[in-house]
Amino acid sequence: MTQADTTKANEENGPPSNGAGKLARAQKAAASSWRQIGAAAGALVLCVSAYYWISSRNVESTDDAFTDGRAIAIAPQVAGQVTSLEVRDNQFVHKGDPLIHIDQRQFLIDRDQAKGALDTAKAQLQGFRYGSEIARKNFPAQLAQTQAQLATAQAVEARAAADYQRQKSLPPKATTQQELDAAAAAWKQAKAQVALAEAQVLAAQPVPQRIGEADTQVGQLQGQVESAQARLDQANLNLSWSTVAAPQDGWVTKRNVEVGNYVAPGQQIMSLVSPEVWVTANFKENQLARMRPGQPVDITVDGYPQLKLKGHVESIQLGAGSKFTAFPPENATGNFVKIVQRVPVKIAIDSGLDPALPLPLGLSVTPRVFLK
């Protein structure tokens, strides 16, 4: 070993009893350990980053999402006082189940009045129908009768004229003035009967018009019957509306009616939340490039972390959320500032729901869409 090597070894190790040498050696060991730890940590961070990138590069997620569904507003269609309430808050009802009953007495009276008016109109219509059938027989018969009477009167008039002419042609000694005057009077009377018969024939001649008049009256009564039937149908409909029934299955929410309240048509008395629930997720516009309907989705619910829901992308709204606000932005005026838009995506829930744990609408969820 050369002198230089010996000197270097002494500098590195130093004599066993030298405290400064021990401290230097400890510092060097600690620095070496920290370098090893740093290298390991860097490798770990690199591995985690690589794993995160690999595992998330085909996944899009957002926390701007919530449960959604149909909330149907329930309102009566007739006015009246509530006589009974058949449901409680948050009760599940089936389609057709009664929700409230409105006082029916006025609707029963209206129905009975409409029924009476309909019966009267039907009776009048039947009477005019009989009259129309009779008119089709009587009016032609009356015309034939007047024509026969005219023919009879004409025959009588001809005979009276002949009698008068015969009396007038006789020698004065063969007749008397009284007989001549009687023949003349009989002839005049026969002429009057002919004129009367001709007038009667003229009055009886418009047979089709008189039959048409009878048919017109039948048509008017038919319209009255239909109008009365419509009023009866409306009365029956109002009576049925006095019972407000559930239009579909669902949970009763936001009930704001009690027995004794007076309700009016169109007044919202409660809402009905349907059992069908989905997720509306508002993704950023730069997250939609590879998103398509049918892609699988994992869903976690903030309120129920034990639920592990599975679903799929059902549809993507054709318009950003800002487009359908009450006051959409007008970028053509003023200074323009670009803002990342969000587009609602409807996600259907396929599995994972607990029947004993219905999902209220509006709960915060986190969907993870697996892109294909």
Defining key terms:
5 helices; Elongation Factor Tu (Ef-tu), domain 3; 4-stranded antiparallel sheet; single chain; 9-stranded antiparallel sheet; 372 residues; Helix Hairpins; 13 strands; 22% strand; alpha+beta
Fold and architecture overview:
The protein has 372 residues and is α+β, with helices and mostly antiparallel strands. The chain folds into 2 domains: 59-103 and 251-370, Elongation Factor Tu (Ef-tu), domain 3 (Beta Barrel), CATH 2.40.30; 105-239, Orthogonal Bundle (Helix Hairpins). The chain contains 5 helices and 13 strands. The strands form 2 sheets. Strands 1, 2, 4, 7, 9, 10, 11, 12 and 13 form a 9-stranded antiparallel β-sheet that branches. The longest helix has 65 residues, at 105-169. The radius of gyration is 53 Å and the shape is rod-shaped. It starts with a helix and ends with a strand. The model is unreliable at 6-17 (pLDDT under 50).
The CATH class of the largest domain, by name, is Mainly Beta
Helix/strand-derived category reads alpha+beta
How many beta-strand runs? 13
The biggest beta sheet is recorded as:
9 strands, antiparallel
CATH superfamily of the largest domain: Efflux pump adaptor protein, beta barrel domain
Low-confidence stretches: 6-17
Q: What is the CATH topology of the largest domain?
A: Elongation Factor Tu (Ef-tu), domain 3
Tally of discrete structural domains: 2
Q: N- to C-terminal separation? A: 70 Å
Q: What global shape is seen?
A: rod-shaped
What is the helix fraction of residues, given as a range?
A: 40-55%
Which CATH architecture of the largest domain? Beta Barrel
Treating each run of at least 4 consecutive H or I residues as one helix, how many helices? 5
Order of helices and strands: HHEEEEEHHHEEEEEEEE
Strand content: 15-25%
Q: Tell me the Rg in angstroms.
A: 53 Å
Q: What's the overall average pLDDT, rounded?
A: 84
Quaternary structure annotation: single chain
